[in-house]
Amino acid sequence: MISMKNKTSSVKGIIYFVLLSFSCIINAQEDLLDAINSIETDTEFNTLATFKATRISIGQSVITREKGVLEVTWQNRFWNTPDSVSTAFVADKVNVRFELAYGVTDRLTIGAGYGTGYTSVDAFAKYRLLYQKDTGKKFPISVTLFQSIAHREKNPGDFITRDLDFEEKLGFTTQLLIARKFSPNFSLQFSPTYFHREADKFLPEPDTNRFALGFGARYKISHHVSIVSEYYALLDSVNDPQSYGPFALGVNWEIASIQLQFNITNARNLVEDKFIGKTLQNFNFRNGNLHFGFQATYLFHFNKK
Amino acid sequence: MKKIILLFCFFSCVTWSQESSQFFDKQGKITFFSYTSVENIQASNNQVVSIFKPSTSDIVVRILMRAFVFEKALMQEHFNESYIETDIFPEATFVGKIIGFDINNDIQTKRFEGQFTLHGVTKNIRFNAKILKIGATYEISGTLEIPVRDYEIKIPMLLDPNIAEIISVNFNFQYDLYEK
């Protein structure tokens, strides 16, 4: 009876021993994993790629190019005239703009463009004020300042009868771009916009200082393809009943160093002050209103880390 | 009898934890290369965390994927956005053991076996690495090869020629005693 008791206790003991030593082994593994996860890395990263390109579709995005990156952009806008007979190849009309933009620093991008519509020359600067951060010291939004100046050689309309002076051909756009990447796929942007067009002083009811509010969104449907949409609401269109808010629906595709952007829109001009303030046709699918936009961007890296 | 065994267990555990000093490196270096005829891609990360426990020859590594720095900013964006998807899988980890590690040997090359998790996919991997004992510190360095396809990293057909099927990875860790 006694030996029986001893036997059970020694069996129990062995079980305890096995369990205990087993728990020690498990603890060792878990400890190591816990320990490594508790080591804090002092790294803080900006949220990447709120948008992939410096334009959402037709308008500017919060994105600035990294230091040493040269961006070469070719923009097209094709449309048909409402005439029933056309002899043109593919499309009746086309506006083209060629742009070079360079990342001076990660935050500052400067650029210039030449466009065939009204023969425009424009220059712009973009400065990234704030970066969204999802790790470390979190910050919910990205903010970028955008300033552009454009000069148009051709008269902007029939209401002007004389040749314009240099200053009168200028247009300015200031934008505060505010965006948030809500999920890896979805980003949203608000773009309060002020624009000043000298030539607008010749309008029947002159109003050279105007405001608009832009909305832009992108949804990624695959790693390299996203659907984008943009709309600019003119906040004071009373004085200019002829203008409509530009709307765009597009697809962006990026592969290696090339970004391709396709869209349908009612905006036929390519410089901010003009397409935001002077889109003279509303968005629909009629000839003269529907524009097909195509934009290709190639990125060169001059600053290799 | 029971008490003696329990006591033995207790002491064995205590001595175990006394012997089980851990070594860690917060600034481990990992560099990976993708060589193809079209393009050579290289990226490095100097903020890899690792803990090494000589007494049990356990080793764990934690790699923050966002900390990889590429030559070209755009490549870095693609790596994070499209290939590794660091929003969803911010880290890669290795949990493994050194097979036949001899605690008294100052220079040895041994086989490492364990589980490597990348892009949410866990695979058993094995590779050889050199372990140096320098005074009270350890250095572990070596090379291993990671087949991209194993980790469900999707590469668009157009870019297939630009990215190597097998990525070679160099690593170097300098361990100091880890005081809790």
Written description of the protein model:
The complex is a heterodimer of chains A (305) and B (180). Helices cover 14% and strands 41% of the residues of chain A. Chain A has 305 residues and is mostly beta strands. Chain A has a twelve-stranded antiparallel beta barrel with strand order 1-2-3-4-5-6-7-8-9-10-11-12. Chain B has 180 residues and is α+β, with helices and mostly antiparallel strands. Chain B has helices at 2-19, 73-83; strands at 22-35, 40-53, 58-64, 69-70, 91-99, 107-118, 121-134, 137-147, 166-178. An eight-stranded antiparallel barrel of chain B has the order 1-2-3-5-6-7-8-9. The radius of gyration of chain B is 19 Å and the shape is elongated. Residues 13-18 of chain B have low confidence and may be disordered.
Order of helices and strands of chain A: HEEEEEEEEEEEHE
CA radius of gyration of chain B is 19 Å
The number of helical segments of chain A is: 2
Number of strands of chain B: 9
User: Which band does the percent of strand residues of chain B land in?
Assistant: over 45%
Oligomer kind:
heterodimer
**What is the SS-derived class of chain A?**
mainly beta
- With strands numbered from the N-terminus, the spatial order across the biggest sheet of chain B is 1-2-3-5-6-7-8-9
What is the terminal separation of chain B in angstroms? 36 Å
Which descriptor suits the 3D outline of chain A?
elongated
Computed Rg of chain A? 29 Å
Most strands sheet of chain A: 12 strands, antiparallel, barrel
Percent of residues in helices of chain B comes to 10-25%
Mean pLDDT of chain A: 86
Mean pLDDT of chain B: 86
Shape by Cα distribution of chain B:
elongated
User: What structural class results from the helix and strand content of chain B?
Assistant: alpha+beta
- How helix-rich are the residues of chain A, as a percent range? 10-25%
